[in-house]
Design goal:
Helix content is 38%, strand content 16%. The chain has ten helices and 13 strands.
C-alpha cells in the first residue's frame, strides 16, 4: 500500500514513518510540499498516487495564528480541503489530524457536563466552539474535508509531544536541566499524547475502513502543571516548580481550559485504547535518555 505523509518534518512525521514501515511510505516535509498550494497538492497526489494520505501538516503556532488568521486559514483549512479534493480525484483515503482546540469557547460551554453536573470529556458529537484563530482554522478544515471526501478519517488529538521536535515535555527538560525556577499553568486540563502512540493509532484508523471522526489520545488527563511535575519526577530533576494561572502569561490567543477528549466512541467501534498518559511519558523520556525513576510511573516502563 502506498502512503503519503504530509508534514513529515514535524514531530509526528517521524513516528508516522515508523508506524507505516510495512508499507511504501513517502514523507513530504513543508519545504517539499506546501499544502496551502492547491496546484502543488494536486500534482503531488496525482504523481505519487497513494492509497492513503495522512495529513500531519499544520500551522500549530497558536499565538502566530491569532496574529495572522489568513495564513492559519490557508494552511489549516484550505490545505486539508486541497488534499481532500485531490484524494477524491484519485480514489485515495485521507487521514486528517485535528485538535482538541476545536472545543471550549462561546457559544458553547467551556466544558461539557454529565448528569451529576461534573465535567466530562468532549465527544466526537459535541458542538464545536473554538476560542482562538488556530481552533477556528482547524474546525474549518474538518468541515471542508467532511463535505468533500466520503473516504476520510478525522483524528482529533491533544497536547502532543515526542522525542523529536519542539514540545512541552522537551521544554520542561531543558528548563529543568538549566536549574531555573519554572512556573506552569494549572488551570488548563487535557490529555497529554505521545506521538509514537498517536502514530500507531492513526495507522489502525487508516486501514480500518471506519470512516468518520475519532478522538485518539493517551488515556487519562492532567493539567500542564501536573504534566511538568511528572516530567521532573520521572527524570529525577530537583526543580523549583510552582503553579500559576493562565492570566499570568498574557498571551495573544486564549486557550481552552478543558481539553479532555473522550475515546468511548472509538473503543466501542473496535479501535484499541491508547496507553495511559503517564506510561507513555515514561517511554518517551526513556527514548530521550532522560528516564531516571521508572518507579515514579505506575507499572514502570511498558515494553
Amino acid at each position: 500500500m502506498r502512503v503519503l505523509v504530509t508534514g513529515a518534518g514535524g514531530q509526528l512525521g517521524r513516528d508516522l514513518d515508523a508506524a507505516f514501515a510495512e508499507h511504501a511510505v513517502t514523507g513530504l516535509p513543508r519545504d517539499e510540499l506546501d499544502i496551502s498550494s492547491e496546484a502543488a497538492v494536486a500534482a503531488a497526489v496525482a504523481e505519487l498516487d497513494p492509497a492513503v494520505v495522512v495529513n500531519a501538516a499544520a500551522w500549530t503556532d497558536v499565538d502566530g495564528c491569532e496574529a495572522d488568521p489568513d495564513r492559519a486559514h490557508a494552511v489549516n483549512a484550505l490545505g486539508p480541503w486541497w488534499l481532500a479534493r485531490a484524494c477524491a480525484r484519485t480514489g485515495a483515503t485521507l487521514v486528517h489530524v485535528s485538535t482538541d482546540y476545536v472545543f471550549g469557547g462561546p457559544p458553547g460551554p467551556s466544558a461539557p457536563l454529565d448528569a451529576t453536573g461534573a465535567r466530562r470529556p468532549w465527544t466526537e458529537f459535541d458542538l464545536l466552539a473554538p476560542v482562538n484563530a488556530y481552533g477556528r482554522s482547524k474546525a474549518a478544515g474538518e468541515e471542508l474535508v467532511r463535505g468533500t471526501l466520503s473516504t476520510h478519517h478525522i483524528v482529533r488529538t491533544a497536547w502532543l509531544y515526542g522525542a523529536a521536535g519542539h514540545n512541552f515535555v522537551r521544554t520542561m527538560l531543558r528548563l529543568g536541566h538549566a536549574g531555573r525556577p519554572v512556573r506552569v499553568v494549572d488551570d488548563q486540563v487535557g490529555s497529554p499524547t505521545a506521538t509514537p502512540d498517536l502514530a500507531a493509532a492513526i495507522r489502525e484508523v487508516a486501514v480500518s475502513g471506519r470512516f468518520g471522526t475519532w478522538h485518539r489520545t493517551n488515556r487519562g488527563s492532567c493539567s500542564w502543571f501536573a504534566l511538568a511535575q511528572a516530567v521532573f519526577a520521572l527524570a529525577d530533576l530537583d526543580v523549583d516548580l510552582a503553579p500559576q494561572p493562565s492570566t499570568a502569561l498574557d498571551r495573544p490567543a486564549p486557550r481552552p481550559s478543558w481539553s479532555v477528549l473522550d475515546d468511548r466512541h472509538a473503543t466501542l467501534a473496535g479501535l484499541g485504547p491508547l496507553p495511559p498518559w503517564r506510561d507513555a511519558l515514561a517511554r518517551v523520556l526513556d527514548e530521550l535518555g532522560e528516564l531516571r525513576r521508572p518507579d515514579a510511573a505506575p507499572g514502570g516502563v511498558p515494553p
